[in-house]
């Protein structure tokens, strides 16, 4: 599998894992054409509580590990589960509680990215 196909498979599994736990406002930010960007792609979503944010992060890690045999390079924010970051190097997943996401307004910060909004399946 080439790099592009691998990354697409990773993105698909991440989105599925988020949808499995009813994550909201899922967006994919393609940062590949932005100079000095910290990753090629961000996946951002929201949860309604620290319990749901933790469940979303757990779902992403588990699905990617079980179906793609891949583990994140780094995970942070699990202690308070206000904003959990799951870093797969080329793809970084940001799972926010709604008010924290609004406060940091990452959509505005990375406004130059090509943004794909994923429609909720429920």
TrEMBL record:
Functions as a ribosomal silencing factor. Interacts with ribosomal protein uL14 (rplN), blocking formation of intersubunit bridge B8. Prevents association of the 30S and 50S ribosomal subunits and the formation of functional ribosomes, thus repressing translation. One of its GO terms (cellular component) is cytoplasm. One of its GO terms (molecular function) is ribosomal large subunit binding. Keywords: Cytoplasm, Repressor, Translation regulation. The keyword Ubl conjugation does not apply. Pfam families: RsfS (PF02410). GO terms for biological process: cytosolic ribosome assembly; negative regulation of ribosome biogenesis; negative regulation of translation. This is Ribosomal silencing factor RsfS. Interacts with ribosomal protein uL14 (rplN). The gene is rsfS. It is found in: Cytoplasm. Belongs to the Iojap/RsfS family. Its main location: cytoplasm. It comes from Chryseobacterium rhizosphaerae. SUPFAM superfamilies: Nucleotidyltransferase. The keyword Phosphoprotein does not apply.
């Amino acid at each position: 599998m080439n790099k592009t196909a691998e990354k697409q498979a990773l993105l698909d599994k991440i989105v599925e894992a988020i949808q499995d736990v009813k994550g909201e406002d899922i967006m994919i930010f393609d940062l590949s054409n932005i100079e000095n960007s910290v990753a090629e792609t961000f996946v951002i979503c929201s949860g309604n509580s620290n319990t749901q944010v933790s469940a979303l992060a757990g779902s992403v890690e588990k699905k990617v590990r079980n179906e793609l045999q891949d583990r994140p390079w780094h995970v942070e924010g699990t202690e308070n589960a206000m904003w959990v970051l799951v870093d797969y190097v080329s793809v970084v997943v940001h799972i926010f509680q709604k008010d924290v996401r609004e406060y940091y307004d990452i959509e505005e910060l990375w406004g130059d990215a090509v943004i794909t909004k994923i429609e909720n399946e429920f």
